[in-house]
Specification:
Largest interface: A-B, 41 and 47 residues
Order of helices and strands of chain B: HHHHHHHHHHHH
Number of strands of chain A: 0
Largest sheet of chain B: none
Helix content of chain B: over 70%
Distance between the termini of chain A: 24 Å
Number of helices of chain A: 12
Structural class of chain A: mainly alpha
Structural class of chain B: mainly alpha
Strand content of chain A: under 5%
Shape of chain B: globular
Oligomer: heterodimer
Number of helices of chain B: 12
Largest sheet of chain A: none
Number of strands of chain B: 0
Strand content of chain B: under 5%
Radius of gyration of chain B: 24 Å
């Protein structure tokens, strides 16, 4: 983002303020986004420090307190095996954060290089890659993820790698579009004249300048990945018992929905808030980084 | 379509728990699972273009028969959900733009942010618990074919369709609002305004026509999304549709069924895209002239 070393004139003007200053302005201009960002930090904090926040082990079963309502001992009650729901919720945050990061990470590692190369090299490579991207984009995402999970094997990591593979074309298309524009830029021409290799130009000049829209899309994809994790775990293809994840908690609570309806709400609300926070931050970043969308 | 699937251990599943290695090998041979992957895939693709999607490894039923049985159910719910998305989303988007900046606008935008972030299977469950189990206004699970009894079919499909439409409504309202904002701020709308046309006719006659192409794009994307989302929602409502079929087949590693179902869904999406492309030129004659 703060690529101050490759300094053609307009880049210098945009980057005149340091990253920290611009970040501060962004937060002041959009308090809602700041709140969303704070929420995300809290959730990530919960994920990292889960064992210290929730003292009960998430898989600890206690048959004396099955399906109990909220109490001081169990803030959100207990599930059908007497496990502490609050503890499972906090530990489930780790699963969700891990899942979302893994899926988006896989999508980035696959999608960005493919897209940049397609856009920069052009010609038949671009033709082929674009066709493949179009094909993938016409698959309903979850369906494809389910099928790929079937191949890789059931489990949270495999499920999220599948989701990442399914997301990769979206990032690839974006990166390709940016690369198409950027390869016309004067500084790319200049670098080529100085004899820089294509891979050096891609990494040093094209990638840093293509990163902004990609970053926005990645933030938005985090929300989609989170929902995909919940769906796949709910279907039994993601997180496997006894480890908690928000999706599998909902699936389990559904079986006892009539006896203990409250347990269904907590993980769902957690998913909703996290996805909402990612979307809010993403949309706000888009507006802050893209001058054309500022009007609306 | 490089979605070729590894044989996995379906042969072991088929052979049962205490099967000998010879028995597993025999089953592999019978089902052709011992052949190289590309040969298997070529064989499958060759038959697929002739309308033969081979048989389920577990039930032995032809995949085409399974799909013919479950696909109409899914289509019915998807169409219902998309109808709801448009019927509710468009008025909400218009309301937001008419009261731009006002309370209604903010409420619609807030609601649509939440709608997009809701896990649709979770909202489906809340519907089941609150509206079906606690209040018995709707049937909790199950499905009635629209060919047998249309009113009962609509009755059974309402909760799943509303659950599916939650994100669709939000998407339609949001996109309609943002594309209308763009159009209404353009020069030619300033001209319409300047020549004295009231806001109503500007919005209805000129505004909607101009954003109809965008709206069509949103709807065609919705088909893709809703088809994906229905997979999960069907499981909640125990609807015998594509979703349940794909999930069960994946869990049991019954790959011919998975492949056939994915193929059917992709063909649906492609067909919708094709129809959308043709509708574009009707809505906007400039497109066909290019």
């Amino acid at each position: 983002m703060t690529d101050t070393t490759s300094t053609p004139l307009q880049q210098a003007q945009i980057d005149r303020d340091s990253f920290v200053v611009r970040f501060k302005h962004w937060l002041i201009d959009d308090p809602v986004a700041a709140a969303a960002l704070a929420t995300l930090i809290v959730i990530v904090g919960c994920a990292i420090f889960a064992p210290w926040i929730a003292r009960d082990h998430p898989a600890l079963q206690d048959y004396n307190v099955m399906l109990e309502g909220p109490s001081m001992a169990h803030l959100l009650g207990t599930d059908d095996l007497g496990r502490d729901v609050f503890s499972r919720l906090i530990h489930g945050a780790s699963a969700s954060v891990y899942a979302a990061c893994l899926a988006v990470g896989v999508a980035t590692i696959l999608g960005i290089p493919i897209g940049l190369i397609a856009g920069y090299v052009g010609g038949w490579a671009d033709e082929v890659i674009s066709r493949v991207i179009d094909t993938f984009l016409s698959f309903p995402a979850i369906v494809l993820a389910i099928a790929v999970t079937g191949v890789l094997g059931i489990g949270l990591t495999n499920a999220m790698i599948s989701v990442g593979i399914v997301f990769a074309p979206q990032l690839a298309r974006l990166a390709r579009a940016r690369a198409l524009v950027l390869k016309q830029e004067l500084y790319v021409d200049a670098a080529r004249c100085f004899g820089a290799s294509s891979s050096w130009i891609l990494v040093r000049h094209v990638l840093p300048n293509a990163i902004q829209p990609v970053l926005v899309q990645m933030t938005l994809l985090m929300a989609v990945a989170l929902l995909a994790e919940a769906s796949l775990s709910f279907l039994g293809l993601g997180m496997q018992p006894p480890d908690p994840s928000w999706g599998s908690m909902i699936a389990r609570a559904y079986l006892y929905a009539q006896i203990a309806p409250a347990q269904m709400y907590a993980p769902g609300i957690a998913i909703l808030i996290t996805a909402l926070a990612f979307n809010t931050v993403g949309e706000s970043l888009r507006e802050a980084l893209d001058p054309t969308s500022r009007r609306s | 379509m490089l979605l070729k699937l590894l044989p996995g251990d379906v042969a072991i599943t088929l052979a049962g728990e205490n099967a000998t290695t010879e028995r597993i090998e025999e089953i592999r041979r019978i089902y052709g699972l011992d052949r190289p992957l590309l040969v298997q895939y070529g064989h499958w693709a060759f038959n697929a273009v002739q309308g033969d999607l081979s048989n389920s490894l577990l039930s032995g039923e032809a995949v085409t028969t399974t799909l013919a049985r479950v696909f109409p159910n899914t289509l019915f719910i998807v169409c219902y959900a998309i109808l709801l998305s448009v019927a509710i989303g468009v008025p909400l988007g218009l309301l937001a733009i008419v009261r731009a900046g006002g309370l209604a606008d903010r409420l619609v935008m807030l609601g649509s942010s939440i709608g997009v972030a809701l896990p649709n299977f979770w909202i489906a469950m809340i519907f089941v618990v609150v509206l079906a189990l606690n209040r018995q206004w709707f049937p909790a699970t199950g499905f009635v074919s629209p060919w047998q009894d249309l009113s009962a079919a609509i009755w059974h499909a309402t909760l799943p369709a509303v659950a599916l439409a939650a994100s669709g409504i939000s998407e339609v309202a949001r996109q309609l609002r943002s594309s209308l904002v763009e159009v209404l701020n353009s020069q030619h709308f300033r001209t319409l305004h300047a020549k004295g046309l009231p806001f109503g006719p500007i919005l209805w006659k000129h505004g909607l026509r101009n954003v109809s192409v965008n709206l069509l794009t949103v709807i065609s994307l919705l088909v893709n999304r809703t088809l994906a989302a229905t997979v999960v929602v069907e499981v909640v409502f125990a609807i015998p549709g594509m979703g349940n079929t794909i999930v069960n087949a994946t869990l049991q590693r019954d790959f011919p069924v998975v492949q056939g179902a994915v193929l059917a869904m992709v063909l649906t999406v492609i067909t919708v895209n094709l129809i959308t492309d043709m509708l574009y030129s009707i809505l906007d004659p400039r497109i066909s002239q290019r």
